[in-house]
Amino acid sequence: MRKNNRITPEGTKDYLFEECLTRRYIERTIGDVFSSRGFHEVVTPGLEFYDVFDPDFSGIPQEVMYKTTDRRGRLIVMRPDSTLPIARLTATRLQNLPKPLRLYYTQPIYRNNPGLTGKSDESVQTGIELLGAGGIRADLDVISTALEALGKCVPGYRLELGHAGIFHVLAEQFPSGENLREEIRSAIETKSYARLDGILDRLPQSEPVRAMRELPRLFGGEEVFERASLLRGDTRLAGILDDLHGIYRSLSQLEQSGRLMIDLGLVQRNDYYTGIVFSAYVEEFGDAVLLGGRYDNLLGHFGQPMPAVGFAVNVDAIAKTLLARGNVCPVLPMDILVHGETGYEVKALEYAADLVAQGLRCETSVLETQDGAVAYAQSSGIKRIDFVGETVKTVNLI
Amino acid sequence: MKPLRIALTKGRLENKAVDLFSRIGYDCSAVREKGRKLILPMGDSIELVLAKAADVITYVEYGVCDLGVVGKDTILEKGGSYYEVLDLGFGKCRFALAGPKEAADFFSGYSVKTVATKYPRFAANYFENKAMDVRIIKIEGSVELAPLLGLSDAIVDLVETGTTLKENGLRVIEPICEVSARLIVNAASMKLRKAEIETLTGRMERCVRKSSSNGKEKSAC
Q: How far apart are the first and last CA of chain B?
């Protein structure tokens, strides 16, 4: 049988050198923003029970999850999302802690993508969850954290705001079943104007039908709120729009340069969102690099109903963007190679430790001869060698 | 500002799409005399990329092309996530389930049927929705051959006029859905270059509406 011991599975790869440095830089920069705002790091298991991600409330299709079983035959998945495990954790081990809770994570998620598309099955996400707090203040806190995190590592991003409640409120007023509702949602999600018109033409015309027809077109800048006047006939919708506009104005005070957009037609399939939803884009990446929103019903599935809001950043996408922009964290050669003569190996280690204590970056030579050490230093770009014998002799290489 | 990049399905839809662009005022001379080039300028603000249908979707999904012109048949087969903003009205035909004229009712009996198709995902979906177990065999070329050679009981394929079916002793058992050329847009492009994209799609939409209402395709818009 052919052995697969020299390749990695499709959808995975090794990350090397400047890729690692860039990823770590992003994780650290964003992690610092999170912890400076009072979020505490948690790590959840890579393996979880399938039931935590039950597609009925997670919106994650079962074919996307990598599965196995535990010793008792129960279904296990490789974590396809970090919000649900954090909801589980909050509803169980953290249930007695005072709320609101501020948690953050940096960990990979696993998704079984269709083959031959070049998509990553393993990707690192970093994100926050603010649990046990409803209302605009919490929304603002979380979204301003997103703005700060992105601003620190990918200048030139755009952040878009929407509200899951708009579609839900409109859909409730429809005399329609689940299938039709899903058809309408999917037409709005994909901005298929023609298909949406086709579906809505079959229904009796009413205020909500007209509003639904407009929904996918209502995206852009602040002027969207004026164009959305058709939605204001319903008091709940008017309330949602006022809240959203308020958040938009507050965020504009933090972020002047036109980075904010509105899309009232954001109706993600990931249906655990109940309130504000937001996503961020950069020009170099064809998909959202950040996704988030309010999910007030999710904790109820774990037995501890409470409001919550959060987001996840796709670290790999941002690393790719920075590398494409040439903002690479360079892999620097060491400052000094320390080579101990025969019999002075321990002295060389001590000497190197002293240099490191002075703040220099030092590598000890593991080569047998001086010539070998010089050749090694030259090939790895190290500019200085200290030979440690009875005395220390410094050689600068050109 | 870099030009908007539009991926265009080569072949059947290509000429109609180029006609549409020229009617809304773009300079299509480079495209009409393209030689073997695959990336072609259309005025200063747009670049056309010629690709196979399924690749149009791939390029748009990854955002290396901002927009794409592709048949609904390919969209239904390939799926993916992008915006599908406009029905361009040309390249019309329909998906249908077809089988030999003299065969017994396809939906009767309890034996599992075999279906040949170029669109295995679409066909599988269609039968799943009917809660029917069928064997699906993917065929690359003339699907009509499969029932004639006795490989399958029926086919799922695109039907334009029905002539090919008729000449080979097949008939439509059930029409499935209408397809036509669609304009698709990458999600990030739609947000980051909204004004440019909306101007373009607005002009295309008006032109498509006008030609469908007066029945003429040649008039300028």
A: 26
